């Protein structure tokens, strides 16, 4: 082998030795474990009577769970600071099981009643970019000597007061949800208390004495099922009612309205028992239409019934076209044509068609309800009333 051949062979072997294999490295983003997530509890401490922020070096806040006692990670005590009264607890372990771990929030400030609230911090399912949950929990302190106000519930059905209904307050001894969403207020722990029941009076009012309630305590308000009899003697079975937002004593408005509904809703509160035009083809020279109801009503927009003439050669209607008269007992409605030009001899086959216009009737027992006579009311057998009256024979 020549020296040139040996040199070429060595060069080829050297170039082969320099070739390297490429490799690709894939990095997997670690998945956040539910057990590693934490909560932040933050809010303000305020005077429950005046709404003013409460703070200062003598305000003590604690988050207690077993032997573990936490103090706030941040609390603003300087009255000159715009965030005066703000607090935050951070790094609270999220709980997979909501019933597994309960914390007690304690607030102590001289001149105010001690505040305690039970809550838990449950991890929520679903995508979460951050590993920290957040909860707002405002603490309202009541000054020493302040007592709970009386709470008055007015129970109605279709605008009428419901007497002899049982209104019940069930204490919420602990809560994992915000029982007073509008203000994010933490409810005070009410402890072991019995339910309180009051029966409504003739005006539908049930009054709970403040002396029987716990300031800052959360109660669920219920009205038990009750029968209701109106002035016409009709009895309606009313359904149980439970408030969506719980009562927080001293914070929630102390005068509230509760409107009950039928256990089996019906639209037959008022119906027509008779009408003077029920006999087909009869002639009523006055042109009047008289309707009789099963229960007393009142008139709304009494001058606004409508009327149209047909086969009228000379007769015309004035404004308003109809005169509506309701009997004193509210059971009979008379609709009369208001003629500008009275019918003459040539008005053969003259007829009048009455309509609702914008007029309404309202059941006296249910003043919040309004009905159109021809569009909404029915006879007892379900037939639709007619507004047609024949005033002159053909």
Features:
394 residues, mainly beta, Immunoglobulin-like, 3 domains, five-stranded mixed sheet, five-stranded antiparallel sheet, 2 helices, 29 strands, 37% strand, elongated, disordered N terminus
Into which percentage range does the β-strand content fall? 35-45%
Alpha-beta classification: mainly beta
Q: What is the total tally of β strands?
A: 29
N-to-C span:
140 Å
CATH architecture descriptor name of the largest domain:
Sandwich
Q: What is the 3D form?
A: elongated
CATH topology of the largest domain: Immunoglobulin-like
Range of helix content: under 10%
Integer average pLDDT: 81
What number of domains? 3
Unreliable stretches: 1-32, 174-183
Biggest sheet details: 5 strands, mixed
Q: Could you characterize the architecture of this molecule?
A:
- The protein has 2 helices and 29 strands.
- The chain has 394 residues and is mainly beta.
- The protein has 3 domains: 36-141, Carboxypeptidase-like, regulatory domain (Immunoglobulin-like); 151-259, Immunoglobulin-like; 272-390, Immunoglobulin-like (Sandwich), CATH 2.60.40.
- The strands form 8 sheets. Strands 1, 4, 5, 8 and 9 form a 5-stranded mixed beta sheet that branches. Strands 12, 13, 15, 18 and 19 form a 5-stranded antiparallel beta sheet that branches.
- It starts with a helix and ends with a strand.
